[in-house]
Design brief:
Blueprint lengths: L4 H20 L1 H4 L3 E10 L2 E3 L3 E6 L2 E6 L2 E6 L5 E7 L3 E7 L2 E2 L1 H9 L3 H9 L3 E2 L3 E5 L1 E2 L18
Parallel strand pairs: 1-10
Antiparallel strand pairs: 1-2, 1-5, 3-4, 3-6, 6-7, 7-11, 8-9
Length: 154
């Protein structure tokens, strides 16, 4: 069988083009999970034993700081809600960032791989270390109880 030069080039280049397209796809080359370190700080000092809930649009994780946790990546933000009795509280939102494979995917697959990676979260990363700044607990003023029938607003 004899192939014309143009057909021979097409036959030889087609597998290379497919291979290049697949290597750029973050959903094929990266995990949809990420290991992050969570630490809490109060008054410029690390504070241990703080209970935190981390959640995004695909899951929820519980941790007592300082600790590492494996979470599922997403294109959406990661919310962190922490509290320790008589010490303080914190609420933060961390945006995910697109990594290099996501942008290569956009260029090489005409946007199809970008949509896949956005839906799986594989093309996005959160910071490897999450430092949560705590707010001090407010002390309640002790006083006489309110009169019956009085509505209190906090």
């Amino acid at each position: 069988m004899y192939l014309r030069p143009a057909a021979a080039v097409t036959v030889l280049l087609a597998p290379l083009v497919i291979l290049a397209t697949l290597t750029a796809c973050a959903s094929l080359t990266e995990s949809t999970e990420q290991n992050v370190m969570v630490q809490t700080v109060l008054d410029h000092r690390e504070i241990a034993g703080v209970g935190c809930v981390l959640y995004n649009d695909v899951g929820k994780w519980f941790v007592t700081t300082p600790a590492r946790v494996t979470l599922r990546k997403s294109a959406g933000p990661l919310r962190i809600d922490c509290q320790k009795a008589d010490k303080g509280w914190a609420y933060e939102k961390v945006e995910s960032k697109a990594d290099g494979n996501l942008w290569g995917n956009l260029a090489l697959t005409a946007g199809v791989g970008y949509i896949v990676d956005k839906n799986t979260g594989a093309g996005y990363d959160y910071p490897a270390v999450l430092t949560v700044v705590m707010h001090p607990a407010q002390e309640k003023e002790e006083g006489p109880p309110p009169a019956p029938g009085v509505t209190l607003f906090w």
